[in-house]
Structures are given as C-alpha cells and as structure tokens.
Specification:
Layout: H1 4-7, H2 44-50, H3 56-68, H4 73-95, H5 97-101, H6 105-108, H7 110-117, H8 119-151, H9 158-175, H10 177-205, H11 218-235, H12 254-279, H13 303-334, H14 344-366, H15 376-400, H16 419-436, E1 438-439, E2 443-444, H17 446-450, H18 458-473, H19 477-480
Antiparallel strand pairs: 1-2
Helix pairs in contact: 2-10, 2-12, 3-11, 3-12, 4-11, 4-12, 7-16, 8-9, 8-13, 8-14, 8-15, 9-13, 9-14, 10-12, 10-13, 11-15, 13-14, 15-16, 15-18, 16-18
Length: 491
C-alpha cells in the first residue's frame, strides 16, 4: 500500500477547489479525492445514513412480515434485527474503504472486477438506484403530498406532486457530496422528532399477541423470506457506502467511520421496520390490494401527528433519493461512459437530471408505489440476489490482497481486466437464483418449489458460492501481497 502522495501521481485527481463548500456544484465525478480536499468526521455518517431511512419504504418492510408473510410480531422482529444487522455490518465494512482508497464504491469495485468486468455490478447498481429506488420512493412521497393537499381542501394531481418530489431530489443530487451531507443532517431534526412521536403512538396501539399465519411456506420459510427482504433493504445502501466517506482523511479512524455508518443504517431501519410490524397489528388497519398503506397510519395516531408524518414521508423520500440519484449516476460514470465535450462535473450533473427525467416518466406510467399489490417484496428480494455475489467478490478480493491495491492505478486503467470477478459473480448469480429464488408469480426455483418450507435463502447461497469460487480462482493472490506496510502508507 503506497502513500497518498504516491497514489496522487498515478490516478486522476478530482478537479477544482471544493473543500467544505455546500451551496455549489461538486466539481469532478469519480476521480480520486486529493489530500487537500479531505474533510468530515465519522459522526457525520450517523446523520447521513439515519435520515434517508426515515421514510415509508422502511416502515412497509415491517408491514410485510405480518401482512404478507404471515409471521407473528415477535418472529417479524427477530427477522428484522438479524437481517438488518447483517446488511449494516457489510455497510460498515465498505464505508471504511472510502477514506483509505479515496474513490467511489463502484470505482474501488474495479480492483476485483477489472474495468470492463465492473460494468456488471455498476450497471446493476445504476439501474437499482437511479430507476428502481428512485421510483419507489418518489411515488410514495408524491402520494403523501397528495394526502397533505386534502388538509387544505386541495386536490393535487399526481403528476404535480410527483414532479415536486423529483425536482427537489434531483437538485440536491446535482449539487453533490457536501450538500447531500448537509441536507441529511438538517432534515434529521424534523424527521427524527416526528417519526419518534409517530412510533410512540403506533407501539402503544399495537397488538403484540397477533397470531401467525404463514401459509404453505411455514414459519421457517416465511422467516427466511422476511430475513432476505430486510437484508436486501439494508444492504441496498452497500454499493453506495464509500461514496460518502471518500472525502474523509486517509488517517482518520476507519473503525469509527464504519461504526457510525453502520449504526445509522441499523438504528433507523430497525426502529421504523418494527413500527411497521406494529402498525400491521393495529385495529382498523387494512392491507388489501386496494387499500392505501400511508392512510393506515391514521388508525394509530391523532390527525395532527398523521399529517406531520405525511410531510415527513415526503421529506424522507427526498432524503433517500438524493443519495440514490447521486450514487446511481456515479455508477453510470463508473461504467466508463465518455463525455462529449463535457467536464466530469457537467457529465455527472447531466446524468443526474437525465435520471430524474427518465424516472419521472416511468413513475407517471407505472406508479410503482410501496404498498399492497406493488410487489415491493419482490424488489427487495431481487436486490439481495445481486448484491450478495458482488459483496462476496469485493470482500474476498480485499481480504486476499490484505487491502493493498498499490498505487490504485488499476482503478482507472481501461486495460486492467480481471475475468475472475465476473465469472465468480455470474456463476453465483445463475446458480443461486436458478435453484433457490422464491419470487411468487415471477419465478420459483426448483428447490423452494419442491420444499416450500425453505423460503428464500438465495442471497446466502449466492454469497457463499461466489466467495468460494473467487477464492479458488485467486489462491495465489494473497501470497503476492506482502503483509508489511511501507512508511507513510495507509493502514
């Protein structure tokens, strides 16, 4: 591992002077962050990852456990805690990479996949963030604004409320890294206080003794389905992790960086998902295919708190999607797309706006809302399917190399290719999904089809199988990396 001074001689360094400026468009795109531009404290990451999960998409994950998978409240709670803990742990590990390497997550991924091979995970991440999560969160926020309009006897059309949400989040994402950190921090007091009050009312009216009715999959099958969904929700942030820590000093305590990033995801997801599970047990709530899920909040709290919660659902959607758009467009840039007479800053901004326009059009047509009939649980399962093999390759590669990527020139070398990462991830994906996936009405693989009680363990199989294959293909890599560190290197 070479010193930061040596690295800056071998990689493209981010252009312009940025520092801690907030009200300006972030210069550059996916380049290395120079030492003079490093700033930020580990505790900042707690705010950054707490705010984007304070939204209805998080609440509804907990609803799934009871209303869709048929678990009891306490079975749901265990699945939530275990699945979220696992996704938060991997998020903590990847967040700690940012200060060390100084590059976005999907650029660091090139170390294991090579330049062209990285198109596979970067493309999946760009689609998941810029299109998938963008639409899911934006539509939920738009419906919340529509409901708020009723408070003033205003009938707001969906296209207008959706447009308001989209414009706000695209503007934040376009400004970039510092403004996102700023927005997440200052959105937290409003989101935190209102959601805490809302949770108190929900928990006070919950029926914790609700019986389980998991259907033909049984308790274990339903548990693994929810466990996979909760992991998918928390781990859905993993491919973005280093994007928000790469500006931190290379000498910072990376254990603290990982701790606060992981805790931000863990605390927010566990609390709101448990609230969602509790909400599903509140008398009077309805979770049929024609019922509006956000309206069910009204059964658990006074109108004043309900309308404040709707406001925060809209703000929370913006907080989540500002990160989705920013990191999604970073993944698009990491694909190796060449600019046409544009600077890297202009390219990133244009891609953010393009993602907003495309997401808006798809959202208007599809209205992929979080709620009954939306197949939201399918989306969470599918996220876990591809993220697990990608994690296996990235983490195994970092372990084999002892975290040493030399002068990091491989992250930007278009001629640097590694077939092992693509092969391992491809086999892991095909085998795990082909044999173990359990997505109702889409595809049920042979093993869960013949053994419904197994539920869904696709991401576990995908991770273990991919890690084993990648290790077998790279057994000599660990021997090539010296265990010692040169003076002035990044530990």
């Amino acid at each position: 591992m070479q010193s930061v001074q040596e690295v800056e001689k071998h990689v493209p360094v981010r252009e312009g002077d940025y520092g801690e400026k907030v009200a300006t468009v972030e210069p550059g795109g996916v380049e290395y962050i120079a030492t003079r531009e490093r700033h930020g404290k580990p505790i900042d990451l707690f705010y950054t990852w707490l705010s984007p999960n304070l939204e209805f998409a998080t609440v509804y994950v907990g609803v799934l456990g009871i209303a869709v998978f048929g678990l009891s409240f306490w079975e749901t709670a265990i699945a939530i805690v275990v699945g979220t803990a696992l996704g938060s742990l991997t998020h903590a590990i990847l967040s700690s990479f940012g200060p060390k390497y100084g590059v976005p997550m999907m650029v660091q991924s090139r170390g294991a996949f090579g330049f062209l091979g990285n198109i596979l995970p970067a493309g999946l991440n760009a689609f998941t963030g810029s299109i998938g999560w963008f639409i899911v969160n934006s539509v939920s926020g738009a419906f919340a604004l529509q409901a708020l309009g009723g408070l003033a006897n205003l009938t707001l059309p969906f296209w207008l409320t959706f447009l308001i949400i989209v414009v706000a989040q695209v503007a934040i994402a376009t400004l970039g890294h510092n403004f996102i950190h700023f927005f997440e921090r200052w959105a937290l007091p409003l989101l935190g206080v209102v959601f805490i009050v809302a949770c108190v009312f929900i928990f006070s009216k919950a029926n914790y003794g609700v019986g389980a009715n998991p259907g033909p999959v049984g308790h274990f099958g339903a548990f693994t389905l929810l466990f996979t969904a909760t992991f998918g929700y928390a781990a859905g942030w993993n491919p973005y992790a280093a994007d928000y820590t790469r500006y931190m000093s290379s000498t910072i305590d990376r254990m603290r960086v990982g701790f606060w990033a992981g805790m931000g995801v863990f605390v927010s997801c566990v609390v709101l998902e448990l609230a969602g599970a509790a909400l599903a047990t509140v008398a009077g709530t309805k979770w049929g295919p024609t019922d509006i899920p956000t309206v069910q909040l009204r059964q658990a709290m006074p109108d004043f708190v309900y309308y404040l919660t709707l406001l925060c659902i809209a703000v929370g959607a913006v907080a989540a999607n500002a990160i989705n758009i920013y990191s999604g467009t970073m993944s698009l840039v990491a694909l190796g797309i060449r600019e046409m007479g544009m600077t890297l800053r202009q390219r990133r901004a244009v891609l953010a706006i393009a993602a907003g326009v495309l997401g808006y059009l798809i959202g208007i047509i599809g209205q992929a809302n979080v709620g009954p009939g939306s197949k939201y649980e399918y989306f969470l399962l599918l996220i876990s399917y591809w993220i697990a093999p990608w994690l296996a390759v990235v983490l195994t590669d970092a372990w084999l190399r002892r975290g040493d990527y030399g002068d990091e020139s491989m992250f930007y070398d278009t001629k640097y290719q590694r077939w092992q990462g693509v092969v391992a991830m491809g086999i892991g994906l095909v085998v795990s999904v082909g044999l173990f996936s359990n997505v109702y009405s889409v595809y049920i693989a042979p093993i869960p089809n013949n053994n419904p009680g197994i539920g869904d363990i696709t991401f576990i199989v995908g991770f273990v199988l991919t890690a084993a294959i990648y290790y077998a293909l790279n057994m000599g890599l660990r021997k090539q990396t010296a265990p010692t560190r040169a003076m002035g290197s990044r530990a």
